[in-house]
Design a protein that fits this description.
247 residues, mainly beta, 9-stranded antiparallel beta sheet, binds (2S)-amino(carbamoylamino)ethanoic acid, binds manganese (II) ion
């Protein structure tokens, strides 16, 4: 239910942003039909990544031609057939795909209401390193590891951690009360969506209650910390830039 009297939990600052489902306004994006597209994180706010939520009606579709951008897509719920280059697969909730720069991808035959989160970024090639390969996968097949040995904070790394890949996309799952072990301050940028549960996110010098559907942008060096609250585990999907020199 929308919040009353013009109140919102949303905050868009110079170094971090929180956008809640109550704030969503769609954009029309070339190649996307029969769907709403909400661009939650973008260079317009100072980010180097775009994070977009697509919600498909029956008969909706998406087709992105090959270009400089690479795309990671995660099926939040529903299901659809996704083709990346010459490979195609039916993905259900928890399914994901990675399309390298220079290849195109498409989505068709979505179940009504299918939601897909996209992270898109211009690829930074590394001299002497071959471009990354397309990937179609499912989060249920990715082994999680306790983050820094803590079983209350489980981390799944969805993309290979190899020099060819300049982006990582991970899922963090916290038991109620589980938290990041310390306040992180790092060069990597994050785009994030809360998949389930709730908690409190510290971003710079502010603490925000967050829950499923909320999207967050953290600029490089944005101080960040999270604690899961409530009765059920809190999970979030997030992007970070990796494997490239600072200069
Ligand atoms: O990978 C990360 O930097 C992660 N620990 N950050 C976060 O969850 N805010
Ligand atoms: Mn971090």
């Amino acid at each position: 239910m929308p919040e009353l009297f013009g109140h919102t939990r949303a905050r868009v600052g110079a170094r971090h942003a929180l956008i809640t489902p109550d704030n969503h306004v769609g954009s029309s994006i070339p190649g996307v039909t029969g769907a709403t597209a909400v661009v939650l994180v973008s260079p317009a706010m100072g980010a180097h990544v775009a994070q977009t939520l697509l919600t498909f009606a029956t008969g909706g579709a998406a087709r992105f031609e090959a270009g400089e951008a690479q795309t990671f897509g995660y099926v939040m719920d529903g299901g659809a057939t996704v083709a990346v280059g010459p490979r195609s697969r039916r993905l259900k909730a928890g399914g994901f795909f990675y399309c390298p720069a220079g290849a195109g991808w498409s989505l068709r035959a979505p179940k009504k209401g299918t939601r897909v989160t996209l992270f898109q970024k211009k690829y930074a090639p590394l001299p002497g390193v071959k471009a990354p390969r397309p990937i179609l996968g499912d989060q249920s097949r990715v082994k999680g590891v306790p983050f820094l040995g803590d079983p209350a904070a489980n981390l799944q790394v969805l993309l290979p951690d190899e020099p060819a890949f300049d982006m990582a996309v991970n899922i963090f799952a916290y038991r109620p009360g589980g938290h990041l072990p310390f306040v992180e301050v790092h060069i990597m940028e994050h785009g994030l969506v809360v998949l389930s549960g709730e908690g409190v996110y510290r971003l710079e010098d502010s603490w925000y209650p967050v829950r499923a559907g909320d999207a967050i942008w953290m600029a490089p060096y944005c101080a960040q910390w999270f604690v899961a609250m409530g009765k059920v585990p809190a999970r979030y999907l997030y992007y970070k830039d990796v494997n490239r020199p600072a200069l």
